[in-house]
Amino acid sequence: MSNPVTPYKDSKESKKQQVTSMFDTIAGNYDHLNRVISFGIDVSWRKKVVKIISKSSPKNALDIATGTGDLAISLVKTGATKITGLDISKGMLEIGRNKVADLGLDQTIEMVVGDSENLPFENDTFDAITVAFGVRNFENLELGLSEILRVLKPGGQFVVLETSVPEKFPFKQGYYFYTKMILPLIGKLFSKDKVAYKYLSDSAAKFPHGKAFNNILEKIGFIAVENKPQTFGVASIYIASKN
After folding, report:
1. I need a labelling partner for 18 at 20 to 30 A (CA). Which of 12, 137, 151, 202 fits?
2. What tens digit of pLDDT does each residue of 67-78 get?
C-alpha cells in the first residue's frame, strides 16, 4: 500500500511509531471499547480461531499484535504448553501481563515487546501463529508476513482474524455508516485519543481483504490459503500453512 493509513496525519513519525503511541494511549480503555464497538461479537470470532488452531494440537504458539492478550490467553485451550504474546505497545502488554498473572498462567504465557517486521525468534520456531486485528497495523505488510512465514514451522498453521468490508446490500451500506459515523463518535466519547478510532475504521476500510489478502499470502509463500467471512462479511478469518 503506497499511501499507508496512519493515526496522526500531521505527524512526521513513521506509521509504526504512530501506532505504538496510539495503542499506548488507549490501552486502558481498549478492551471495554472493543466489546462495545463490536457488540461483543469479537469474542465469538476469537473462539473460532482457537477452534481452528486446536485441530493441529500445537505445542508452541505465537500471538502477534497480542495487545492486552485476549487471544493469547484463549490459546491455552488449544493445549499449547508454550504461548508467546508479542506486541509493539508496552502499554497494552502491561495490561496483558496483569491478566495472565491474575489467571495464574505465567508459566504458560510469556508477553514480550517486539516488532512484527523483525521478529526476535529463530527460523521454524512455532507450530501455530495467530494475529487478531493486527495485520492492518503493519507498516510493511509483506515484510511482516514474510517474518511470520520464517518463524513458522513447516506444516505449521497461520490464522488471521481481521476486519473486512461486506460486499452485499444492505450490509455494505450499514457497515460504512457505522464505521464512518458511529465508530469515531464512540471513540471521541470514551477514548483519551480522539483520532484513534477514526484510524481503526479508516485502516479497516483500506485493508486488502478477502481474495486480495489471500493473493498476498500466496505471494509471500504460504500454502493452503483460504478465508472465511464472518458476520455478513464485517470480519474474515484467514487460514494458511507453510510448506
Report:
1. 151
2. 999 999 999 999
| pLDDT tens column, 185-218 | 776 776 667 677 778 778 888 899 999 999 999 9
- Taking CA atoms, 156 is separated from 57, 220, 239, in Å, by 10, 15, 11
- The strand pairing partners of 238, in sequence order, are 160, 227
